[in-house]
């Protein structure tokens, strides 16, 4: 199972750094320093502190799914055969091996997990569901919801105000 995050007190400058890096992870340290009105050395030190604390988890490129041929996105509600630690761990380990599953959430309500899946087309999605997801031995039920349109997808996490 995954560990709980550690909460670290963020000041105004930390929040500004995080806001800028979420919008442009390719920014140079010199430009970041200028944008937050600090010299480069303390700016780099603050970024390293945020990385070491696990607040900044990674840097990556955001891709346009449609432009690379990933035309079908779905949410899938998964119900397990039994809601116990062994089944949950078995399911999580199996899902970790499925690259088309881009999000996996343990949830409350009528299901046990909510998956977000991307596929090239409906045929590829069907092969994935029949050949991989439904074959996970602890899966009892699946309910698919095809995403027709996405109107909001956040790129920058809301960090709130300084306390």
Explain this structure to me?
With 163 residues, the protein is α+β, with helices and mostly antiparallel strands. It has 2 domains: 12-52, Orthogonal Bundle (Arc Repressor Mutant, subunit A), CATH 1.10.10; 66-146, Alpha-Beta Plaits, CATH 3.30.70.920. The protein is 35% helix and 18% strand. The protein contains 5 helices and 4 strands, in the order αααβαββαβ. It has helices spanning 12-23, 29-36, 40-52, 85-96, 122-133; strands at 72-80, 101-106, 113-119, 139-146. It has a 4-stranded antiparallel beta sheet. α2 crosses α3. It is elongated and about 55 Å long. The two termini are 32 Å apart. The mean pLDDT is 91.
Which helices and strands, and how do they pair?
Blueprint: H1 12-23, H2 29-36, H3 40-52, E1 72-80, H4 85-96, E2 101-106, E3 113-119, H5 122-133, E4 139-146
Antiparallel strand pairs: 1-3, 1-4, 2-3
Put simply, the count of helices is 5
CATH fold-level label of the largest domain: Alpha-Beta Plaits
Q: Summarize the main sheet.
A: 4 strands, antiparallel
> What's the number of extended β-strand segments?
4
Mean pLDDT: 91
CATH fourth-tier homologous superfamily of the largest domain: Lrp/AsnC effector binding domain/regulation of amino acid metabolism (RAM) domain
Tell me the helix content: 25-40%
Stretches where pLDDT is under 50 for at least 5 consecutive residues are none
Shape: elongated
β-strand amount? 15-25%
User: What oligomeric state do the depicted chains represent?
Assistant: single chain
The strands making up the biggest β-sheet line up spatially as 2-3-1-4
